[in-house]
Design goal:
The protein has 25 helices and 23 strands. The chain is α+β, with helices and mostly antiparallel strands. Among the domains are: about 1-30 and about 200-295, Serine Threonine Protein Phosphatase 5, Tetratricopeptide repeat; about 315-510, no CATH class; about 575-670, no CATH class.
Amino acid sequence: MRKSVLISLFIGCAWLAWAQEVPSAVSEEQQPRRAAALTAARADSQFNEAVLHKTVLNYALPEEIERGVKKCTTEDTDMCFIALKAFENHSEPAVAAAANLELAVLAMQRGLIKQALAYDEQAVKLAPEDPFATLTYGWHLLAARKYKKARKVFEDLFYLTADFEYVSSAKLGQALAWYFEGKREKAATQLQYLYTSNPYTISFVSYMLGRIASEMKNSQKMAPVFLQQALSHDEKNYAAAELFAQLSERQKNKLHAWQYYATLYALDPSNKKLAKKVERYIKDWGDKSIDYLYYLRLDQPIVQEIPSTPSPKVRMALYANHHQVPQALLSAGVMGASPMRITDGKSDERLRIAAYAEKHIVFNEETGGVDLKDNKGHVEFSTKRPFTFRTEKANRTLLVRNPLSKNLFATALNDKEIKGTLTVVPSAQGFTLINEVYSEDLVPALLAAQVQTVKEPAAMTALAIVFRSALLEAVAKQPQAPYHITDNDDMFQFQGVNLLFQPLLTASKQSKTLRLTQAQADFYLQCGVVTDDGLENTAQSIGYVFSPANVSKYILSNPPADLYSSPQDPTKWAGIKWIYWLDGKEIQDRLAAANHAVGKLRAIVPTRLTPQGRVLRVRFEGSKGSYEAATPQETAFLLSAGTLRSNMFDIVPFYKGKTLQAILVRGYDTGLGKGLCLQGAQGMAKQGADEMAIIKYYFPNARILDTNTGSIH
């Protein structure tokens, strides 16, 4: 599988690889005409920007309701529910209508279906001209499996408004109602309209078209076409990737089935069904199984030499899993771009190694120690103590090659070229690798993992300041810790210094004396309007005011035309606005695998919110108990195996009796909405903002310290 210096990526960049490399199951000539025509229509269509950005939704609330909903962010959301109950029969129709709408949203979150519909009916009765109340009622009827009535309510909405957001959402609701009733052709008709008119729903709509095609005997060959579209527009569409794996297996495409199942299993190693699939394919492929995963492989160091910049040193644990736990390796090769020396705590030097000569670190299960071997397999020394590789020339790099762990899927086992030293720490299960490096030498590599779509120097420089500040914060927080960060940290992603290019080095060099103080140095990739910092990423305010219903209204809204983070490609909005279909049984199984069995899943209740409405804690309620996820990261894993893009979302539950059959998660932006928005910085830089202006915008309360002069900006 190896070709020269490197091969394709899979586990390390799995979702991106799927989006770019997913093969069609049949040739283009064999693809059904309907699928080809629909795909062509999508490619040729021009979105009407004036229509997409025309609507400005109204978030204003009666004063009484605004006071009541504050309890949703200052206390448990159950207290918010109680506070709003006081206004459901208020003498002022506007107040009562708003209260009933909020209560309907909160009741549906709690699985109180009948109560939610009663509140909806009252809200619509009190505010018959409010399209959002009618739209919410339609979606709640859909959740309650009242499909015919839901379609009628969605139809009624078309007589209330022509605003694109409302019409688009109602048509999507109608399509799902037809689908749940088994009327797939009628569902597909509505979905086709959305496919060619709404850039914000392309991935989800493509997934649904692929799902429908896979369930229709005469249309099954269409399914891969639509699923490929779904993944190309949103590489984190877990349901689309899962269906792709199943179709590949059904079509006896062993290679692609293995690759898709392997990546799904890497995301969700607790999934017993995926474990069986992976075990079967490993048995089929034998020792070659790892060769068919897209790992980065290097024959020798590529960069070889990078000037070092003396600065505080950072210890980074390599090959960490999604929970940032460094994985025990069974073997790995090490090669230096200059002669290397191996030292340990007993002596200054254990071994000297020639440049570009590879040594192999191998865990010895019999002794519980580590053997260092040459290319012929001869053991040169054995130890149970940590030892360190360092190049004789400080500017030269080291290469970690062919790392292998007991669990192939716990972490991305890519080759990594590094600066600094590499310490091998033996343990009873294997060994871990710690890279100690100057913080300044690490900044460009951290940039490389994030700025593939960023071209503006000011945006890169601003992110360099954030990364440097965050690195120094991590070191200061635990100066004596075995390691300060991992290569799979929420803040940092490290793929090696071999991905560097000159603008990254320039951005790091130009900002090397600057760091943030009096502010948490966070960042996230893409931003909508409502950030957790209270910034809006537009020149004009949208007037957002939090309430449970307003969160759903905001998620319904299209981004304004002047959004700083708008992508150049009008079909690439998945990082800003997204929709995912998630299976209720899979969520239930993930809870059980994490020792939080709740029985049949009945409700998914946000219990703690930020002032902007971002979800901090979620309670999973079931027939046999409940469990509350304490962090957004835990919530994302339990809901979607970690593929949920952010904690700004709402949920539409789909019930079968009292049990959650599936949920629709509708969300905005990425991450936690704190700190520097990278694509927003890119947009500001295009408008002429320099790195200082970008930093001041995203960190309005921060101070920028120049460590060279001691001055504060």
